[in-house]
Design goal:
Oligomer: single chain
Helix content: under 10%
CATH architecture of the largest domain: Beta Barrel
Strand content: 35-45%
Distance between the termini: 29 Å
Number of strands: 42
Structural class: mainly beta
CATH class of the largest domain: Mainly Beta
Radius of gyration: 35 Å
Number of domains: 4
Length: about 650
């Protein structure tokens, strides 16, 4: 397998007032005498002339420039490196550093670099808000003045903003970058009550945790997300994130919910008991570059191993046997935290995991939580391929609306009766809207009284982050409640009646024999991989359908890459011989790839059909049959494939 008291600088130009004025001369009045003595006349004084004052000069502020703002604020913007990745951060009150959660999670400390060349090792992560994508590190010792977060949600569309951060800077001597942009619109994330400024400039990796500044020098937000294929930046409003930051600083919010590695149980040998196909055990280890990793797992069931690395494109998937020992050997290419996931295809089975390095069990506090109607639950996709299951009790025919919202993942929601496999599972991916139109939502009517499993999955197997699960009564405009699937109308064919299968995830459909039984969830058809499986009554013909998003870690991006991957994996897992490839156009004018294989001594035959949808999704249909005469039917069924959008 290849997943912010903003610094305001006003310089006043003081023009001295000239107030030296000439004084007015007094006017003298003479006493006039006549021949007769007359009383003296009282002298009359003319009014003194009032001088006209000169106008006083008004101080004129010098406009701030982008360069001036950058020079004054950038020393407080730092570069953060954690587990092989990097981002930005801002020095705030108390000499703490504010950044995005996805810059540091799941690390417990990080390397911080300042603009003066100072590098601080192992700066602790003191708080993480995985719902709002915020994290606080520190405090650190520095003479740099911290910045304050300013309320400025009244910024008008078209207003200029400055972005300061470290986009794309993977050098050993990082320097902050200045980007000039405009506010293009406001977006609301109602679930978490956060306003986002969408800007006209795209943002690159490394900008996350940087700051957005007005031309008055006010820090009004934290960069961290982008939207649309053009990657336009999204700025989280400082006014909305400040209460969350204050909560992290005052320890009012529990940073990780008690989740994380259980250091006391670190060992190179672990005994594991798994109860169903959706259950897994996860271990972590910090590995150095060049380390030759070895892992084996032995047990009573059909186990598989997933190793994920700090780099999304890397990873290892091991499933070589249906029973027996699975072995993993891997040379570490990027130092940092690695996750080892143990899963299986069975119900209750036990396993022993051994390695040449100590692995630490990872505690996921979301496992087997309970929720009631009218409540919300905040959870976390802790690691790649995490599956969180929350339990909900419902009465017969009770109708509820369930929604999953997230800023960091594209959540998928499923609902099914408990225990797994005891009833029909319903799923949704992107019906719930949200900031990125990726929230999941279902309105569900319980077919009977009992406990139901609400599952949250991140389907790409790459991303991790927080989510909020909300269960409520249906509201006006909510999705129509799910109802039992109607009995399908048979499709007549030369090979008997067919039934149309249609994907719940992607716009794919294909026909299969109506007499075949859907065995999804069985040992030969694990739900971990297959969306549907159909088997004839004699167990001689098998049809398996699996789908995946092409953005997941290590997924093939072209039909050629897919062909190579399948040739290698099928040859290793089924001991088959590759016999041919055919690039076709189906009866519905859809391009596809057909690969053919033969089992040992022609005991069985394998044919696969694959189709890629606009770089978004892949479907592969696997046909396994023992009678060569069935090949004609297989080719007919391939011809029924269609894209329904």
């Amino acid at each position: 397998m290849n997943r912010f008291a903003a610094v305001l600088i006003l310089v006043l130009l003081l023009i001295p007032a000239c107030n030296a004025q000439p004084s007015a001369d007094a006017v003298a009045t003479a006493i006039v005498l006549t021949e007769e003595a007359q009383p003296s006349a009282t002298p009359t004084l003319e009014p003194t002339a009032t001088p006209t004052p000169l106008p006083t000069a008004t101080a004129t502020p010098v406009p701030l420039t982008a360069a001036g703002i950058f020079d004054n604020l950038s020393p407080a913007v730092v570069r953060i490196e954690s587990d092989g990745g990097f981002g930005s951060g801002v020095l705030i009150e108390g000499h703490y550093i504010l950044t995005n959660a996805h810059v540091v999670w799941p690390a417990t400390d990080a390397i911080v670099s300042l603009t003066d060349g100072t590098t601080l090792e192992a700066v602790p992560v003191v708080g993480v808000d995985l719902l709002a994508d915020l994290a606080v590190l520190g405090p650190i010792e520095t003479d740099v003045a911290p910045l304050a977060l300013t309320d400025s949600e009244d910024v008008a569309i078209g207003s200029p903003l400055l972005l300061i951060g470290y986009p794309g800077d993977a050098t050993n001597a990082p320097r902050p970058t200045l980007t000039e942009t405009l506010v293009s619109r406001l977006r609301e994330q109602e679930t978490f009550d956060i306003t986002y400024f969408q800007v006209s400039a795209p943002v690159a990796g490394g900008q996350s945790g940087g700051i957005a500044v007005t031309m008055d020098g006010d820090v009004i937000g934290l960069t961290g997300n982008s939207i649309t294929e053009a990657q336009y930046g999204l700025i989280a409003s400082a006014a909305d994130i400040r209460p969350r930051v204050e909560a992290l600083l005052s320890a009012e919010a529990e940073a990780t919910g008690g989740r994380g590695p259980e250091a006391s149980e670190s060992d190179d040998r672990h005994f594991v008991l798994l109860h169903n196909v959706q259950e897994s055990r996860v271990f972590t280890a910090d590995l150095e570059k060049g380390f030759e990793l070895e892992v084996s797992v032995d047990g009573t069931g059909n186990a598989l191993l997933l190793l994920t690395t700090p780099v999304e494109e890397e990873g290892v998937f091991v499933d070589e046997t249906s029973r027996g020992i699975e072995r993993l050997a891997f040379t570490v290419e990027n130092a940092g935290r690695h996750y080892l996931v143990l899963r299986h295809y069975d119900n209750t089975e036990s396993y022993t995991l051994q390695s040449n390095v100590a692995w630490t069990p990872y505690h996921d506090s979301d496992d087997d939580q309970q929720i009631h109607v009218g409540e919300s639950y905040a959870g976390v996709m802790d690691h790649p391929y995490d599956v969180d299951v929350i339990h909900l009790a419902l009465d017969k025919d009770e109708i509820v609306n369930v929604q999953v919202s997230s800023l960091l993942i594209d959540p998928m929601l499923f609902i099914e009766p408990s225990p797994p496999g005891s009833g029909t599972e319903v799923m949704d991916d992107d019906s719930g809207g949200g900031l990125f139109a990726t929230d999941a939502e279902l309105t569900y009517q319980a077919p009977h009284a009992g406990v139901y499993r609400l599952g949250v999955v991140e389907p790409t197997g790459v991303l991790s982050g927080g989510y909020q699960l909300q269960v409520r009564e249906p509201y006006e405009g909510a999705p129509t409640p799910t109802v039992p699937e109607p009995t399908p109308i048979p499709i007549t064919s030369p090979f008997g009646d067919l039934t149309r299968w249609e994907s719940e995830l992607f716009p794919f459909a294909v026909a299969y024999p109506a007499a075949f039984e859907n065995t999804v969830g069985s040992d030969e058809c694990p739900e971990l991989f297959y969306q549907a499986c159909f088997v004839d009554a004699l167990d001689q013909t098998f049809i398996g359908i699996f789908e995946s998003e092409m953005g997941r870690m290590g997924a093939p991006q072209t039909l050629d890459e897919l062909a190579q991957s399948m040739e290698e994996s099928l040859a290793a897992s089924m001991d088959v011989t590759f016999t041919g490839r055919e690039d076709i156009v189906s009866a519905n004018n859809r391009p596809g790839l057909i690969l053919s294989f033969t089992g040992p001594q022609e005991a069985f035959f394998v044919k696969t059909f694959s189709y890629m949808l606009n770089g978004d999704a892949t479907i592969t249909i696997v046909f396994i049959y023992s009678d060569p005469a069935q090949e004609e039917m297989v080719e007919y069924l391939i011809g029924t494939f269609e894209v329904t959008q």
